């Protein structure tokens, strides 16, 4: 169904009576924006999912602090935390969170060159290169973190 | 390829209609015909009451923007053959008030555009009437992309933030501001900042990025906005520093 | 037209800083502690090792910064999502209060856990 046909039932009520006497040209039709505008296009949906990734970033902070707290409390609480983290709902939640966080990271590094205009020897560094540098930094950072966690330090 | 295609065209007659309705027309399908040619065929042969804007037929004047099958597009540069076998939906540009049929009101954009002073601002005026401002090719390169804008407003039609927040200055106006900000001959950047670095300016943008996908001229307004955010934010930080270090 | 907004500028800078550190560090941490260890794909680190790592002052500071900036990132994005996505313009003040209130609460908790 057409967007316009669907909106037709949503005419703004307050505009009708006062404007009857006004010449035709000054009574334009103003479609309303649906609350679910972000379902209308794939790109809009992807945008909203990208924005919602921030909720899972916040969840990660909570999860991390629970972990850190358990470690500080001693071996037993740490073991209990590990058990808890293996419960199906925690696991599923974390898998979903991981998917969203990856979406965040990938879109973030792809967008980074948009704001940053780097120059080297008077020339503008190509956007691809800036993005590639970000992805490389991501790889290095992940490697360092994994190394520390898995017993390197 | 079939030799006809159906156009579903939005009609709105403000004197009689409460809301737009769709009307179908069958037009010849030719390899070289753009949607605009189909509309002109309707106007000339089938129904003279159909209203729409166009002028140059070559992607320069920016007046033929409409919503074709849900996407904002220049109808002179969008080909019917790409939509075969059809039907093709042709609606007015989204996010603007519809005056009649496919014609939208552009007052809002016209009001916003001069706010960003899209011209060369010089501090040394008057007295520059016959001075030549030289510019090197790299300096031209800085802003050339933004100077390609034809004010077609497709980016506004694509922008959900503009739909929700009609006060948003919008993609093209900000890209045009950058077109002059980045011009080596211009000195008006700090004046434009009063308009750009506001809640209705760049800070309203959440980087949906659709303006850039919609732009038929490769202007990349989303990139222009993003870049300006960094400029404005750095400027704000510097304004907190003691005077001498700015 | 409104005035230049330095609060928006600062909010955006913190959002960006948070977006950057969380994009760099959160995926690997979540992958390890949220998925890989619970699934048993790798053995989780010994308590003694983790505890030693977490007592390092540099790590404490780094984690605190990560938590705070990540929350600031969340607050900025989430308030815009509520504002635009659900068109809750009228509730703007309340939304800002809740989001940045969440940042203060979360950061205090982080400080308490990491340095308390
Ligand atoms: S920026 Fe592109 S889409 Fe927007 S008005 Fe200019 S040419 Fe049209
Ligand atoms: S008619 Fe001029 S841009 Fe299409």
UniProtKB/TrEMBL annotation, chain B:
InterPro entries: 2Fe-2S_ferredoxin-like_sf, 2Fe-2S_ferredoxin-type, 2Fe2S_fd_BS, 4Fe4S_Fe-S-bd, 4Fe4S_Fe_S_CS, Beta-grasp_dom_sf, Helical_ferredxn, SDH/FRD_Iron-Sulfur. GO terms for biological process: respiratory electron transport chain; tricarboxylic acid cycle. PROSITE patterns: 2FE2S_FER_1, 2FE2S_FER_2, 4FE4S_FER_1, 4FE4S_FER_2. It is an enzyme of class 1 (oxidoreductase). Residues 3-96 form the 2Fe-2S ferredoxin-type domain. Pathway: Carbohydrate metabolism; tricarboxylic acid cycle. Its EC number is 1.3.5.1. Its cofactor is [3Fe-4S] cluster; [4Fe-4S] cluster; [2Fe-2S] cluster. Binds 1 [3Fe-4S] cluster. It holds the Pfam family Fer2_3. One of its GO terms (molecular function) is electron transfer activity. Residues 136-169 form the 4Fe-4S ferredoxin-type domain. Keywords: 2Fe-2S, 3Fe-4S, 4Fe-4S, Iron, Iron-sulfur, Metal-binding, Oxidoreductase, Tricarboxylic acid cycle. It catalyses: a menaquinone + succinate = a menaquinol + fumarate. NCBIfam families: dhsB (TIGR00384), PRK05950.1 (NF004616). Belongs to the succinate dehydrogenase/fumarate reductase iron-sulfur protein family. This is Fumarate reductase iron-sulfur subunit. It comes from Pseudonocardia bannensis.
From TrEMBL, chain C:
It comes from the Bacteria. GO terms for cellular component: membrane. Signal peptide: none annotated. The chain crosses the membrane at residues 12-37, 57-74, 94-115. This is Fumarate reductase subunit D. Keywords: Cell membrane, Membrane, Transmembrane, Transmembrane helix. InterPro entries: Fumarate_red_D (IPR003418), SQR/QFR_C/D (IPR034804). GO terms for biological process: fumarate metabolic process.
């Amino acid at each position: 169904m057409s967007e316009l046909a669907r909106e037709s039932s949503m005419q703004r009520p307050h505009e009708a009576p006062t404007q009857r006497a006004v010449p035709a040209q000054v009574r334009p039709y103003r479609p309303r924006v649906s609350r679910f505008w972000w379902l209308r296009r794939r790109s809009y949906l992807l945008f909203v999912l990208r924005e919602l990734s921030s909720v899972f970033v916040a969840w990660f902070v909570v999860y991390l602090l629970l972990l850190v707290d358990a470690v500080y409390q001693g071996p037993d609480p740490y073991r209990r935390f590990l058990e808890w983290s293996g419960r199906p709902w925690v696991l599923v939640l974390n898998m979903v969170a991981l998917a969203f966080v990856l979406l965040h990271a990938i879109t973030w590094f792809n967008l980074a060159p948009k704001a940053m205009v780097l120059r080297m020897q008077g020339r503008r560094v190509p956007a691809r290169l800036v993005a590639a540098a970000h992805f490389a930094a991501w790889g290095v950072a992940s490697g360092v973190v994994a190394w520390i966690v898995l017993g390197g330090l | 390829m079939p030799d006809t295609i159906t156009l579903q065209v939005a009609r709105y007659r403000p004197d009689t209609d409460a809301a737009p309705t769709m009307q179908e027309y069958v037009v010849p399908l030719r390899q070289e015909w753009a949607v605009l040619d189909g509309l002109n065929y309707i106007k000339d042969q089938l129904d003279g009451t159909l209203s729409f804007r166009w002028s140059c037929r070559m992607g320069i004047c920016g007046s033929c923007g409409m919503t074709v099958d849900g996407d904002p597009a220049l109808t002179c540069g969008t080909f019917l053959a790409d939509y075969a076998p059809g039907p093709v939906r042709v609606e007015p540009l989204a996010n603007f008030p519809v005056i009649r049929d496919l014609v939208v009101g552009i007052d809002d954009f016209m009001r916003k555009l001069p706010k960003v002073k899209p011209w060369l601002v010089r501090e040394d005026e008057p007295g520059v009437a016959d001075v030549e401002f030289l510019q090197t090719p790299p300096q031209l390169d800085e802003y050339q992309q933004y100077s390609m804008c034809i004010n077609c407003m497709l980016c506004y039609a694509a922008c959900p933030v503009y739909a929700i927040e009609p006060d948003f200055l919008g993609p093209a106006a900000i890209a045009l501001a950058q077109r002059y900000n980045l011009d080596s001959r211009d000195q008006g950047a700090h004046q434009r900042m009063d308009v750009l670095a506001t809640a209705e300016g760049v800070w309203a943008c959440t980087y949906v990025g659709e303006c850039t996908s919609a732009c038929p001229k490769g202007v990349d307004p989303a990139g222009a906005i993003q870049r300006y955010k960094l400029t404005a934010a750095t400027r704000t930080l510097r304004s907190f520093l003691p005077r001498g270090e700015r | 037209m409104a005035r230049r907004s330095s609060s928006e500028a600062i909010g955006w800078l913190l959002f960006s800083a948070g977006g950057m550190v969380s994009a760099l560090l959160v995926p690997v941490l979540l992958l390890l502690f949220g998925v890989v260890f619970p699934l048993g794909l790798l053995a989780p680190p010994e308590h003694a090792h983790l505890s030693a790592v977490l007592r390092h002052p540099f790590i404490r500071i780094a984690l605190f910064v990560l938590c705070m900036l990540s929350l600031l990132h969340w607050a900025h994005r989430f308030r815009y999502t509520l504002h635009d996505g659900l068109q809750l313009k009228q509730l703007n003040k309340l939304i800002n209060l809740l989001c940045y209130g969440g940042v203060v609460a979360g950061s205090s908790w982080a400080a308490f856990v990491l340095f308390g």
